[in-house]
Structures are given as structure tokens and as C-alpha cells.
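Protein modeling request. Please complete all fields; requests missing the sequence field cannot be processed.
Requester role: graduate student
Desired output: 3D structure, C-alpha cell encoding
Chains: 1
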Amino acid sequence: MPQADHESPAVLIVNAGSSSVKWALFRVAASPVRSAGGRIERIGLPDGMVTFANGATGHDQRRVAHIQDHAAAVQVLIEQLEQTGRGLSIQAIGHRVVHGGSRYTNPEVLSAAVIQELRRLSPYDPEHLPAELTLIEALEVRYPTVPQIACFDTGFHQHLPPVARLVAIPRRYEKQGIRRYGFHGLSYAYLMEELERVAGREAARGKVILAHLGNGASLAAVREGVSIDTTMGFTPASGLPMSTRSGDLDPGLVSYLSKTEGMTADQFHHMVNAQSGLLGLSELSSDLRDLLAQESRDTRAAEAVAVFCYQGKKWIGAYAAALGGLDQLVFSGGIGEHASVVRARMCDGLAFLGIQLDPARNEAHDAVISGPGSRVTVRVIHTDEERHIAQSVCRLLSVAGNRGTK
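Delivered output (406 residues):
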């Protein structure tokens, strides 16, 4: 992208998933302003989708394309960027990096040493880290003078207490980094900032359960602004059942399926990450919207939805116990923000915890969906991981700029 003195400074934010890439351009400011963005979805499939969101017009442009892999996806991203980023000078590139291990918690400039360590950590999360590294390296080739910064999904959970962090296997494995890390941290950090903005500091410092419910789904228990427990553990496959991830399983299944079906470790990994969850239970779809439409006439769809809602309700109860009570319950993510029936079913029967929804508010997706008699305030807050990353990157740029003037 050509740069000139009159161009406005901007940051590029890249959010890579196992089969998708989201990106956004933000103008640098105390509160970064989104100017454009896009999504590249269903990477590796013939019916992949490329979307460009024009911040100026508010209109999305979509086209179907076969994007073979993440290396091809980043070239599409760069093409979109070259077409839409005129008048902007990219000051930095911020990345959502799913796993930082036990070493990385705060945003880090992606030096050669950091990239090497992330490559070493790739077996921790083979679904995400290799794809993220592919994008980082490709963008370094295209923008060699632009610093790249990693923001870690595991960072929000860095202070998990030992009872929530430790895995009950031989202690020597802890020294190898095997522990519960937790994920969706960038979403949770943003939600806590938004909770303080809309409800005040006292509410954000209380006993809070955050439910990020989307294709990936997890809950977190937060007290005094600090995560004390979360449903995902060493990998993002644990916790609740998700669109294609199994959630928690009996580890004895590994041995059983190995003996009865000759299933290898790689095959088991693929099964629990890509063939399970809502898709595996329903044998119909990984999309909750499809299952809700089918549940009245297909038992499999109904049971998949019921398992998802039951597990969410169970974790809400468990985390209310871990917190010693509950003040705020926040729903977010694609399902959490838009599926009123899921919110209602997860909260049904929890009046003993002080949770009472207002059906009309819930159906309308209001910001507060609890009733006037509810002791717990139940909220719906839109999450924005890209904006949170942009804020972190802009803060780093500001600190670096201040240092440079001294």
C-alpha cells in the first residue's frame, strides 16, 4: 500500500480461525474507528465465501470462491486491503493468536524469537496456531517494515487459581506446560470493558459469569475483574459441546476407540474438533439455527439443542457456586446475542440463583433481559474481538511514540 505524509494512520487487525480469516482496518485514535473489514470463510471448501464490509457505505459485498488454504486466504486479504486501504497508512498489524502457552499473556511484538516460540507451541493448538503463523509470515513479506503484534486469547485467564488451573495427571507434566489455559480471552476482556462502561465499575467488579456462545462456546467466571475459572482447558475443544467440537469427554474413549476401531490419535483429534458437537449429535448441521428450525420434526436436532442448552445451564450453576453467588450474567457471541430461545432455556429453572428473565425483553434482544424481580442482572452485550485488539495495538503504538519523544 503506497504511503504518503497526508495519509491517515491505521492498524490492520487479523483474526484467523481454523477455516476462516476475519480482518478489519481501524483508524488510529484514542477510540479506534473501524473503516473497513472482511471475512474469508469455509477455507478449503469449494463453496467458500469472501465478504467485504465497507465501513463508509455500510453494505457488504459477497462472492463465492474456492480458497484452498490460509496461504491463499492471505493473498485475498491483501488484495482487498490494497483496493480499500487508499488514504490509510498502516502503522501496525495486530493478530488474534489463540494460544500463548504459559509464557505469553500480554500483547507481544512478533519478533523472530516470539515466532519461533509460537511455532514450538503449535502442537498445543494445531487447529489455529499453524494458520496464524502462515498469515503472520505472509504479511511480513508484503509489509516488511510494519510491526506485527500478537494478542493472546489465553491472556485473560493468566491468573486462574491452582484449583482451576491444574490438571489431575502426574505432576511432571505441569513442567511441560500441560495445564488449563482457557480461551476466548480477547472477547472476555472486551465484554468486561463494556460491562464497566454500561453498568459501572461496581458491577464489573462483582460476581460475573460471561457466556461467549458461538461456533466456539465457553463460559468464564469472573470476580473482581479477574477470571477464576473457564470451561475450556488445555485446548479449545473442551468444555461445552460446540458447533463441531465435542466439549468435555471421558478420556477412556481414546483407548476404547483405538482398540475397537483402530482410531489413531490424529483421527481422534479430527473427530472431536471437526465431526462432533452439534454436528455429531444431530447428523444434520453444525449451525444451531438449522437445528432450531428442525427440532420439532427431528429428534436428533432436538436432542443436540437440548444438550447444548443443558450444558450451558449446568455451567452457569457451577460457576455461581465457584463465585459464591452471582450478580451479572452476560450472553455474547453469535448464539448468545441472537438466539433468545437458547438464552431462555439456559436460564430456565435458575430462579433459585436469582435469575429471572423478562420474556419480552429477551425476545427483543434488549441490552438487559432480566425481569424487575431478578436478583441477577442478565445482559446481552455484543462482543468485538477486533476492536479490543485494535485498542491494545493503539496503546502500544502510543507508548512507543511517547518513548520516542523522550
